[in-house]
């Protein structure tokens, strides 16, 4: 039996449109409704037939849903929830896909008093944005972290987990604050660093932008992929997971200073030891199916 | 007419073995000789038929060469050059593939007085090492930067350029110190940062190694590819391009501090502005053929 019969997706960008495509494939009898604040996105979603209905307002989108998933930037969650709060059916479960969970849980609980809110975070994505960037297999073999509030109904939690498993994801449960610290290191800090170095490279006077681009295959281009991610989404992530990101950043900066010192003083052994240790981490990621085994990300070379 | 008739490759790792494969395909009449200090690598090269001859010493490898390319870590260049100096034919051209050029030019000129040395750097590679990791198309559409010393014979420079064009590369000429600054930002700093963050993530107490690996698809896994690169090669790069790397690192650290401050004080506009600017850099890299257009590096999702 399917965990939900009438699913509403609010926000039809990369993640929302991927969920829509996944539901149409994996749960074809589900009645799927979509909404996006941007009329152009609604029109595209309509043209792509991402949902059975595209609603004109958040309220009309949720009116008969048994699952409502918010797929909007975390900074927009409160406003969207307020928009549909009055129309939310009492028995509906509300979830989301936001990358920071403590703050999202707080604002959703506040905007939807009495509602069943089970936040979740599928750790998957690409650097593309918008309804055309999504695809049904985005969540295959990826982890979806479910962060139920204390005292959450176990049956509701299990229905959310079931939903994500059907989209191909593996499920893990976590407390929201632990989620936020784990993601600060595995996702938020990497994005922050990538954005920073691409900015640094753009601002050099003596090395031209054209040189940076021409010789980017030396490593830099890897960072530009992540630094091409959605600006609104990422601004909101940093603003809503501030403490954990600043803490991880502090640790990173200390480690970077240690390497800086090792380079300045010619301590080759320290460099070599670290560079050997990091190789093993890559191996584990590939072995555990969290990245492809192909060299150079399988880039074409001909 | 081919630029060289008898090519010797010293060092048969990823780059050396890729050159060997490229020469066999693109310049099949060239007589190819290889040497590696590691007997196991020599045996593998023999088995893979990477060269027509695998020599037992660097000296015997170069004895009738008209091109000798050093494909060893930059810290090993001086010692290898000293090994074959006495056997180098007077008319041979010596080149290399090192990632830092000022220091390499200096040590090769010192170790090979009177020889024609035309250093070069193909900006290409993968995170793999060793003779089995190479492939003939590695240099296709990539740039090879040639850094001739002042007063170099233009005919010798052109022969080196011709050689690399036949392996698929595009040629750029640069002064060694400019090369070292360009590569410090497009290659060396990205590697340093990737090594650092993978180290930082490995050392956390409250987030386990297993969690870091499981949720690495949030961005972290991208960094682990670069941080799996050859430890000896990269140790030597940082030790031989110290000033430029430390300067770029200083700029990066300043920019990172500015972002840290923006996050701490909730300055969303500053974050949004940077994140929008960096998106354009990615677009240029793809447009100029320096990376594939596929989302998420074209990773498999099924």
Q: What this model shows, in words?
A:
Two copies of one chain form a homodimer. Chain A has 302 residues and is α/β, with parallel strands linked by helices. Chain A folds into two domains: 6-175, 3-Layer(aba) Sandwich (Rossmann fold), CATH 3.40.50; 178-292, 6-phosphogluconate dehydrogenase C-terminal like domain (6-phosphogluconate dehydrogenase C-terminal fold), CATH 1.10.3660.10. Helix content of chain A is 50%, strand content 11%. Chain A is built from twelve helices and nine strands. Chain A has helices at residues 14-26, 39-48, 58-62, 77-84, 102-111, 154-166, 176-202, 209-214, 220-226, 231-240, 242-264, 268-287, and strands at 6-10, 31-35, 53-54, 67-70, 93-96, 116-117, 120-122, 143-146, 170-173. In chain A, the strands form two sheets. Chain A has a six-stranded parallel sheet with strand order 3-2-1-4-5-6, sandwiched between helices. Chain A has a three-stranded mixed sheet with strand order 7-8-9, with helices on one face. In chain A, helix 1 (14-26) links the parallel strand 1 and strand 2 (31-35). In chain A, helix 7 packs across helix 11. The relative contact order of chain A is 0.11. The model of chain A has no long low-confidence stretch (mean pLDDT 97). At the A-B interface, helix 7, helix 8, helix 9, helix 10 and helix 11 of A face helix 7, helix 8, helix 9, helix 10 and helix 11 of B.
How would you sum up this structure in a few lines?
With 302 residues, chain A is an alpha/beta fold.
């Amino acid at each position: 039996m399917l965990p939900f019969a009438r699913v509403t997706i609010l926000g039809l960008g990369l993640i929302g449109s991927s969920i829509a495509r996944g539901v149409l494939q994996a749960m074809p009898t589900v009645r799927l409704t979509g909404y996006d604040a941007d009329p152009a996105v609604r029109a595209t979603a309509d043209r792509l037939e991402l949902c059975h209905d595209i609603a004109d307002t958040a309220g009309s989108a949720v009116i008969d849903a048994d699952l409502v998933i918010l797929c909007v930037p975390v900074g927009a969650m409160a406003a969207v929830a307020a928009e549909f709060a009055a129309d939310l059916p009492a028995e509906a479960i509300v979830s989301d896909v936001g990358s920071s969970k403590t703050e999202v849980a707080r604002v959703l609980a506040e905007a939807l008093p009495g509602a069943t809110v089970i936040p979740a975070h599928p750790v998957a994505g690409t650097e593309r944005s918008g309804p055309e960037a999504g695809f049904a297999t985005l969540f295959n073999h990826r982890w979806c972290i479910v962060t139920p509030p204390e005292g959450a109904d176990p049956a509701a939690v299990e229905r959310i987990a079931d939903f994500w498993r059907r989209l191909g994801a593996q499920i893990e449960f976590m407390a929201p604050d632990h989620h936020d610290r784990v993601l600060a290191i595995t996702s938020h800090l990497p994005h922050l660093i990538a954005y920073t170095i691409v900015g640094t490279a753009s601002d050099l006077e003596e090395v031209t932008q054209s040189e940076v681009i021409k010789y980017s295959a030396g490593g830099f281009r890897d960072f530009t992929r992540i630094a091409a991610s959605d600006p609104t989404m990422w601004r909101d992530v940093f603003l809503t997971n501030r403490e954990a990101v600043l803490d991880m950043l502090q640790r990173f900066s200390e480690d970077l200073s240690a390497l800086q010192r090792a380079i300045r003083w010619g301590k080759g052994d320290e460099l070599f030891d670290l560079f050997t240790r990091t190789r093993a981490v890559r191996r584990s990621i590939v072995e555990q199916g969290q990245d492809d085994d192909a060299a150079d990300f399988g880039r074409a070379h001909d």
